[in-house]
Automatic annotation (TrEMBL):
Ranges of biased composition (kind: Basic and acidic residues): 1-13, 452-462
Transmembrane segments: 66-88, 323-344, 365-393, 413-436, 467-484, 490-518, 539-559, 780-799, 833-855, 867-886
Entry keywords, A to Z: Membrane, Transmembrane, Transmembrane helix
Transmembrane as UniProt keyword: yes
Record has Protein transport as a keyword: no
Biased composition regions of type Low complexity, renumbered to the chain: 17-35
Stretches for region Disordered: 1-43, 440-462
Protein's name according to its UniProt entry: ABC3 transporter permease protein domain-containing protein
Length: 900
């Protein structure tokens, strides 16, 4: 194995490939850029002369095509960082955009929310308010009415929001865009936003609230939402039948006043006066009492102006997800520049030694290649930043189209670009300083020699190693401490960043362990190990960069899957398949109304099916009831008449032990409830409480766990017992509760809801089984994950091809002395496989640990490691490395054939 400074196998793209002597000009063809050499100075150079010489040498060295190719990763990193910034800023609105959505063309808004709830057909408050506004001089004021519980005549039952104002005056020009038809201008007319969500077309009739028919006169695009709203013509609410309140008890509307923003106190006084008049004679609720007591203070608290909204933009995803941009914007460019210097380290040291040999100072000789690499890195970063902005703009248009809402402002692109360049510059200067401290004799060792011991024995090497060890210990301690404080996904992302730093500081030890584990049996394996040991710096640089990118990409995939599974766990169907729950309008814990039971009975759809009345262990004031539950827990309990009723309610058969616990006066606790029993002989106490005050406790009761599928109607309950047991223990219990019907087909369930709708009743009181929507991951996290995966693939390709190009001359010499070409290709593949395998394992550690901490620290989070997705990603990375290595090996074979 000969020294690499020889001329055999030299390619034309490396002007730094061999030693130079005083007076020589080239060591290769001029098309690739000659090796710079300067005659030995006859007198010491001045400081200005050394600077000029350094820049002249750097300019000559920058002609290297190998160096130019190696900065491709810096270009990709800069592109990703800027594209992520533009994409994430797209997802958050500015304060002015928020004001356009909430205030439209007006300057202020005042109202009292649900504190002033108008029933259908009630126009007294509206007329009184309009009169007072005219008297106050607010002639430009408009009243916007909103009702959130307008039910469409569709099954499954669905509510939408209805808005009423003078739409012909274009109150929200930046939010609503007319797609077809015209704006509604008379009572009974409606324009439908997002017409794909609610099938409607101009000229058709839309039926809501049982038998309320609205004429569709237009379709509208809502630029701030992707769900449907009904834009009612002025006066529509006042023309509704007041009898709708009987069938739809929760149906009500609220009012807001929007105006130019002048005469604010007069408008507030007008609204407060109308609200006080409306509140007189109403039920003594907290809101109406506040309006009667001091309406001006209550209403003034709801005043919102455009200046206030403009000064409070939405919190950006850059702020909400530190690992979405902030951490990658620092780590990714740093890793890319470090990889450039690591891949070119041997060449830089060889060039430095050559320049020193002709009389240049070590500082000047080392600064020249470092400046060349830094110049290329900065140029690549600038080009990548420009390309990243262009890619981000394309992603911005696509995301805005898919989300059907405007993108956030892009008024500070200079800051991330300057920070990117600053990170590249600082990293390049640090890498150059490390290069300048490299000993002159390092490159004189043959490639197969392991010089780790000699380097470690040097005082400077020992100091650097000790400092790195101290930093590594501090980083791992910080990881352990911060892991105990994680309570949000954003903090889990910060933990990932801290852990990446800790892993990077231990890369040399990991690489040393890899070398110890690699066998030397046989000449090929010995050649792989010896070459990696000889090129330790470049191998560690590649390993560090691949670990960062693989860890970040794998971590994001794992975090996304955990968030999706968590949302899935928290998204329950209202009832289980085959069940229908008849409940109250205000809550599914209340009994159904007589009208609802009568309608269900006359529909005939439930005839002959089992019915079970379920009761919650609660009684008294609905706002602050007495409740019975497990001691130390806040969940309530249910009561059923018979064990067969428990089976119908839970959809599970009881085993003999669970049936025995019920008959012996015990409790079945849901297996997913907190502190559920784990053994067959568990006993627990029940507590009766009112709010946070415990009023009594029971003796210890037998208990066992029951595995059930979660359903929304059981949310807040911990388990179930027999009604006879609750009565014997003198526990509070409902006199009547909701009615569960089992064995209902989907067709009959939908027919029952439709019968309730046709009867003019709120079908939301009939809970049927509907599968929850598939969870959608946050767009910001998804965009970052895609970007990091793309960057990881690019890094693998760049590192593999650069490593292969660097080793090509060395392997060509081995072939020249008789080693089979197949061996050379196997050496390449084994080296790549070893580095990527270790970086993959380290990346998995970085990816999985923060997610495990997140799931363990935050209640309700579900740990989910998407092994098949990680396997696909790892397979793609290995495939990319294999393609790059095979391509380079093919080039090696072609070179060999040409030389023959």
């Amino acid at each position: 194995m000969t020294h690499e400074s020889g001329t055999h196998g030299r390619t034309t793209d490396d002007p730094m490939s061999g030693p130079v002597t005083a007076g020589s000009t080239t060591a290769g063809p001029t098309t690739a850029g000659p090796v710079p050499s300067e005659p030995m100075p006859s007198a010491p150079l001045t400081y200005g002369g050394r600077v000029r010489l350094t820049f002249r040498l750097a300019r000559r060295l920058a002609r290297s095509r190998a160096l130019a190719r190696s900065v491709a990763l810096v270009f990709v990193a800069a592109l990703l960082v800027m594209a992520m910034f533009v994409t994430l800023r797209t997802l958050s609105l500015s304060g002015e955009q928020v004001a356009d959505n909430e205030l439209g063309r007006f300057g202020a808004k005042v109202g009292y929310g649900s504190g002033v709830s108008l029933l259908p057909g009630d126009d007294t408050f509206f007329e009184d308010l309009r009169t007072r506004l005219r008297a106050a001089g607010a002639t430009d004021a408009e009243v916007v009415l909103s009702a959130t519980d307008v039910q469409l005549n569709t099954t499954p039952a669905r509510n939408v929001t209805a808005l009423e104002t003078a739409w012909s005056a274009h109150p929200y020009p930046e939010r609503y865009k007319l797609l077809s038809g015209r704006w509604p201008s008379r009572p009974g007319e409606v324009a439908v936003t997002e017409p794909r969500d609610v099938p409607a077309s101009v000229g058709k009739t839309l039926t809501v609230l049982g038998d309320v028919r609205l004429e569709v006169v237009g379709t509208v695009d809502d630029r701030s939402a992707d769900t449907a709203n009904l834009l009612l013509g002025p006066g529509t609410w006042a023309t509704l039948d007041p009898g709708l309140s009987q069938g739809f008890p929760v149906l009500a509307a609220q009012m807001d006043v929007v105006w130019s923003g002048e005469r604010q106190q007069a408008v507030v006084d007008a609204f407060a006066g109308a609200a006080r008049t409306w509140a007189e004679g109403r039920d003594d609720s907290e809101d109406t009492a506040a309006l009667r007591r001091d309406p001006r203070t209550a209403v003034t608290a709801t005043l919102v102006t455009r200046d206030q909204l403009s000064a409070r933009p939405q919190k950006t995803w850059i702020e909400k997800t530190p690992a979405g941009y902030t951490v990658p914007s620092l780590l990714v460019p740093t890793a890319a520049v470090a990889l450039v210097f690591g891949l070119n380290g041997r060449r830089f040291r060889r060039t430095t030694t050559s320049l020193v040999s002709v009389g240049l100072s070590r500082t000047t000789a080392a600064a020249a290649p470092a400046l060349a690499a830094l110049a290329w890195s900065l140029a690549a970063a600038v080009c990548g930043a420009v390309a990243g902005v262009a890619v981000g703009m394309g992603a911005r248009l696509l995301i805005s189209h898919l989300r059907e809402r405007p993108g956030g402002p892009l008024d500070d692109l200079a800051m991330p670009a300057l920070r990117l360049l600053a990170v590249v510059l600082l990293t390049g200067l640090i890498a150059g300083a490390v290069l300048a401290r490299t000993r002159q004799g390092e490159t004189s060792r043959p490639p197969g020699a392991d010089d780790s011991v000699s380097r470690a024995d040097r005082p400077s090497g020992r100091r650097a190693r000790d400092a790195r060890h101290l930093l590594a210990v501090a980083a791992w301690c910080a990881t352990a401490v911060y892991a105990t404080r994680v309570d949000s996904p954003a903090q889990a992302m910060v933990l990932t960043g801290i852990m990446i730093a800790a892993v990077l500081l231990t890369i040399p030890e990991v690489f040393a362990g890899l070398l110890r584990l690699m066998p030397e049996g046989g000449p090929r394996r010995r050649l792989v190990r010896r070459q990696l040991a000889a090129d330790r710096a470049r191998a560690c640089a590649a390993l560090a960069v691949l670990t960062v990118l693989l860890g970040a990409s794998l971590g994001y995939v794992t975090l996304l899957d955990t968030l999706i599974r968590t949302v899935e766990k928290q998204s329950y169907p209202a009832v289980l398949p085959g069940q229908v729950l008849l409940a109250g309008y205000g809550s599914d814990t209340h009994p159904p109304s007589k009208a609802l039971l009568r309608t269900a009975g006359t529909s005939g759809g439930l005839d002959g099916l089992p019915r079970t009345e379920v009761r919650f262990l609660m009684a008294g004031d609905p706002d602050n009831p007495l409740m019975a539950g497990r001691e130390g827990q806040y969940g309530s309990l249910l009561a059923a008449n018979h064990p067969r009723d428990v089976e119908r309610l839970t959809g599970r058969r009881l085993d003999p032990g669970q049936t025995s616990v019920l008959r012996d006066g015990g409790v079945l606790v849901w297996s997913h409830a907190a502190d559920a029993p784990t053994g067959p002989d568990t006993r627990l106490r029940l507590a009766v409480r009112q709010g946070d005050k415990v009023l009594g406790r029971t003796a210890a009761l037998p208990a066992t766990a029951l595995d059930v599928d979660p359903a929304e109607w059981r949310t807040g309950s911990d388990g179930i017992m027999l009604r006879a047991t609750a009565t014997a223990l003198d526990l509070p219990i409902q006199a009547h509760g909701p009615v569960m019907v089992t064995g209902v087909s989907d067709k009959k369930a939908h027919a029952l809801q439709q019968a309730v709708i046709d009867a003019g009743l709120d079908a939301g009181a009939v809970l049927i089984h509907v599968e929850p929507d598939d969870p959608v991951p946050p767009t910001a996290l998804l965009a970052t994950a895609v970007g990091l995966v793309a960057l990881a693939l690019a890094a693998v390709l760049a590192a593999t091809r650069s490593q292969t190009r660097i080793l090509r001359r060395y392997l060509a010499r081995l072939i020249a002395v008789g080693i089979p070409p197949r061996w050379a290709r196997q050496v390449l593949l084994c080296q790549h496989a070893a580095l990527i395998a270790v970086s993959t394992l380290l990346g998995l550690v970085i990816a999985v640990f923060p997610t495990v901490v997140l799931a363990a620290r935050i209640s309700g989070f579900v740990l989910s490691v998407p092994w098949w997705q990680l396997a696909v990603l790892a397979a793609a990375i290995y495939f990319a490395a294999l393609l790059a290595a095979v391509h380079s090996a093919h080039r090696l074979r072609v070179t060999e054939a040409r030389s023959a």
